[in-house]
Specification:
Number of helices: 1
Bound molecules: zinc ion
Number of domains: 1
Oligomer: single chain
Distance between the termini: 19 Å
Largest sheet: 6 strands, antiparallel
Strand content: 25-35%
Number of strands: 6
Structural class: mainly beta
Order of helices and strands: EEEEEHE
Shape: globular
């Protein structure tokens, strides 16, 4: 999971990662803790970028985290702050 911020503007605890919505090809951002969705990394810090509205969140629930290639194609590569690598038990 590539993340844009380690401090979600909504819950102040979760990481906000790049995600891909299930219903279309649009990329967005989602907090991995409170699952608040954001549309745009440029407006993340203001807390006004939430997308879609809360009543539509369940229908637009992201299918998965976005890949680096998808983020690059969207033009958001420069917004990547880091990558969270899942724990490995090898
Ligand atoms: Zn959050």
């Amino acid at each position: 999971m590539f993340y844009v911020s380690t401090s979600c503007p909504t819950c102040h605890q979760g990481m906000v990662g790049f995600c891909r919505y299930q219903d279309d090809t649009q990329l967005g951002l989602m907090c991995q803790r409170c699952e608040t969705l954001y549309s745009d990394p440029e407006h993340l810090s203001s807390g006004h970028g939430q997308y879609p509205p809360h009543d539509a969140v369940s229908e637009a629930h992201p299918a998965r985290w976005a890949t680096q290639n998808e983020i690059e194609m969207r033009g958001w590569l420069s917004f990547i702050e880091g990558e969270l690598v899942p724990d490995s038990h090898d």
